[in-house]
Structures are given as C-alpha cells and as structure tokens.
Specification:
The chain has 286 residues and is an alpha+beta fold. The protein is 24% helix and 40% strand. A hairpin with a 7-residue loop joins strand 15 and strand 16. The N and C termini lie close together (5 Å).
Length: 286
C-alpha cells in the first residue's frame, strides 16, 4: 500500500534552511508500532501521521513522533502538517482558521496569505504550565550549558505539551557561542522528564536568538523549534509580566539553517507564526 508523503521545511520560505518534518498524509491503517518505526527511519526530529478527527470541532487529528517516542504536541510539526494538508487541498481554511487535534487537545491555527504567495500559519500555544527550577537544578543546567546565564530570570520548566527548560543569557552572541555538554544534558533531561533546554538572548528589544537542545530525544540541536520558541515566549511573559509584545526569533545558524519565527505575546494567548515550503513529495510504502 502506498500513502502520500511530504517532507516540509518549516519556519522558512527557502528550501533546506528551516526545520524539516515528515508528514504521512493518511495513517489510518498504521499501528502505533509502525508509526514509531517510520519515525525512526526518517530520523528527523519529528514525523507526523494524519488521521481523521475524533472531535467534531477539529479539521484533522495528528500524532507526532520523534525517532524514539511520541509527543502530545510540537510546534514545527503543527505548522508543517497544516501546510501539507492545505497545499494538498485535504483541508480548507474557514474564516481564516483551522483546528488541529493532537495529544495535547485542540490547537487553534490561523492562516493568512503572505506577499510571497505562501501561507503564514500561526498556532495558539497550549496553555503553559511553568515551574521555576530549584537552586540545585539551576546549577545543573548551568553546568550542562557551560555559559553565563541571567539569574534574575530564574530558569524554569515550561510545559506546553512538550516540556522545555528555558534559560535566558546576556545576549544573542552568548547563545551562538555556547557549547553544551550533551551527555550531561541528556541525563539531566531524563531526570526531569523534559525534551531539553531552550537558551535565548536578545539582539534587540524586538529580536531574539534561540537554540533548542534535545539530546535525550537523540536530537542534540533542533534547527528551528516551535514549541521551544513558544516556551521562551511563555517564560518572558511569566518573568516580565509583559502586555502585548511581538518578537522576531532567529534560530538555526549554528547548524547551518536560517529559520525565523514571529512570537506574539498577549495576556491570555501566545501565538507562534511561521511559513513553510515542501521539499519532497511522493509516496511511502506501508
């Protein structure tokens, strides 16, 4: 049996410059074990499997797998899957919106047409749960990162379905120059049951640089991470009690990518926006 398959580059409009996600467009005949096997084979940070919606309020259901485990939610797979389905005409936009069903529940997305003819897709971040780290946990994070951090904004575990430790450092240059100890970070991430660590610093008041490290998931550095950036936005709102802020986020230069996102931080909602482009399209043998 052959099923439509796409590999979509997310948070970019330039092929091979963002974060790829593999999308299996009809997974209705697959078992969980087969999904995990395919995700392990693609060896991307995430592979998604599209299923009919179980909720009458959703346009589709998606399951999201890393090479080693299933996730209830992830950012770039959410945008990449929506883009693939829209491009193929499997779903349609209703009043500028679509709704994704996943392990974390229903996720609202907005869709706009950009000037370059591509879609601009934003997802509403699932309501974050934030836990400030204990001093001994902060010390471990600092050891694994090996860079100075901002202790005034205490590192925190941000749970948006995906669970990230978020750390602020003095500037964007420090983010780019950081060389983590991935072995120690993987062990610490497993201890706290988190995906990994998101480190960020500012270029300016409206532009940040982010890196997302997930060695516990066999992804030392995620090129451009939607849930990680959303967690950074939630961390900023938590610590600074900001009102309405729009930030540009850059990510990926340390692994040869050139990704960018737009983060809209509001009192009640956080939106993560990006674009995407299909790089591979064909069929996968099931």
């Amino acid at each position: 049996m052959m099923v439509l398959f796409k590999q979509v580059d997310v948070f970019t409009v330039k092929p091979f410059q963002g974060n790829p996600v593999a999308v299996v467009m009809d997974a209705s005949t697959l078992t969980t074990e087969q999904m995990q096997q395919i995700a392990r084979w693609t060896n991307l940070s995430e592979t998604t499997f599209v299923l009919p919606a179980q909720s009458s309020n959703a346009d589709y259901h998606v399951r999201i797998f890393t090479p080693v485990t299933e996730l209830p939610f992830a950012g770039h797979p959410t945008i990449g899957t929506a883009y693939a389905l829209l491009e193929e005409g499997i779903i349609t936009v209703k009043n500028g919106k679509i709704v994704q069903e996943c392990g974390a529940g229903l996720v609202n997305l907005t869709v706009q047409n950009a000037e370059n003819g591509q879609y601009k897709i934003a997802f509403e971040l699932p309501q974050p749960k934030i836990t400030v780290l204990e001093p001994d946990q902060v010390a471990k994070v600092v050891t694994t990162l090996g860079c100075p951090i901002d202790y005034a904004l205490t590192p925190a575990l941000v749970d948006v379905g995906a669970r990230w430790i978020v750390v602020h450092t003095e500037n964007a240059e420090t983010v780019l120059n950081t060389k983590p100890d991935f072995v120690e970070m993987a062990a610490f991430s497993r201890e706290l049951n988190v995906a990994g660590v998101c480190l960020y610093g500012a270029w300016s008041d409206r532009h940040i640089e982010v890196r997302s490290f997930a060695p516990a998931y066999d992804v030392n550095e995620d090129p451009v991470c939607g849930s990680g950036n959303g967690s950074v936005a939630a961390f900023i709102r938590y610590h600074q009690q900001t009102d309405h802020t729009v930030l540009k986020s850059s990510q990926g230069s340390c692994v040869g990518r050139d990704g960018y996102l737009v983060l809209t931080i509001q009192d009640e909602q956080i939106w993560v926006e990006g674009q995407a482009v299909t790089c591979i399209q064909g069929q996968i043998k099931i």
